[in-house]
Each structure stands twice: as C-alpha cells, then as structure tokens.
Amino acid sequence: QVQLVESGGGSVQVGGSLRLSCAASGNSDSRCMGWFRQAPGKEREGVAVIYSDSGITYYAESVKGRFTISQDNAKNTLYLQMNSLKPEDTARYYCAAGRWVRFDFRTYDMDYWGKGTLGTISS
C-alpha cells in the first residue's frame, strides 16, 4: 500500500508561482508518478507525469513551458513547480502513482491517489 500526501497549495495572484509537493510512503512498484487536477464543475485532467526509471516527462498542452515536474527519490517526494499562473489553473491538484499515463493523458492506469491540495489563482 502506498500513501500520498500533497502539500503546497494556496492562494496566489495571476502571474505568481506555487510549488506543490507529494510525499510518498509505503512499498511501491509504480512506474510513474503524476499530477492531475480538477476544477469546480469540470472533470479531472492530467497535468504532468514522470516515469521513474527513464525520467521521461509529459505535460498537458495548457501547462507546457509553465509547469515543471520533478522527483527526489531519496526523499520519496514528487514536486510540481507552477509558474506564470493563470485563473484557469485554479483547481484541486492530486498526486498519483501507478503503471502508465498516455502522453496526452487521454487514458491512464494509476493505482494510488492523494487527497489533493487546493490552488487558487486570483486576478
């Protein structure tokens, strides 16, 4: 069993930055870890994913060039650096670990999910 706990959410103004963290504990053979988000009244969408062995990353088109996913294996922690934030980035951000994520996030197979952390961007 794997536990994922997100932190780092908050309220910032347009153009600001947030750095999300996801602390992982427990035994895991997950091939990848990623960030997903869900805005009020909208479906959950993929944001960024990183494959642990290769370091390959995928980003949603809406965040490319603004968000960076990284991981510190020694600390069992996943990060999401979010810069140049926009009001449409307002959402609850979830950390997930699992088997695979399609490059465009249309399908994925993730086994473990955190409870999320809220990011609010105001103009």
Describe this structure in words.
A hairpin with a 4-residue loop joins strand 7 and strand 8. Helices cover 0% and strands 58% of the residues. It has 123 residues and is mostly beta strands. It has no helices and eleven strands.
Task: Produce a short descriptive summary.
It contains no helices and eleven strands. It is an all-beta fold and 123 residues long. It is globular, with a radius of gyration of 13 Å.
What global shape is seen?
Answer: globular
Rg, alpha carbons: 13 Å
Oligomer: single chain
Percent of residues in helices: under 10%
What is the mean pLDDT?
96
Main β-sheet: number of strands, strand sense, barrel status? 7 strands, mixed
Name the poorly predicted regions.
Answer: none
Q: In whole angstroms, how far apart are the ends?
A: 40 Å
List the secondary-structure elements in sequence, H or E. EEEEEEEEEEE
> What's the count of strands?
11
Query: Given the helix and strand composition, which structural class is it?
Result: mainly beta
Strand content: over 45%
By DSSP (H or I, 4+ residues per run), the number of helices equals 0
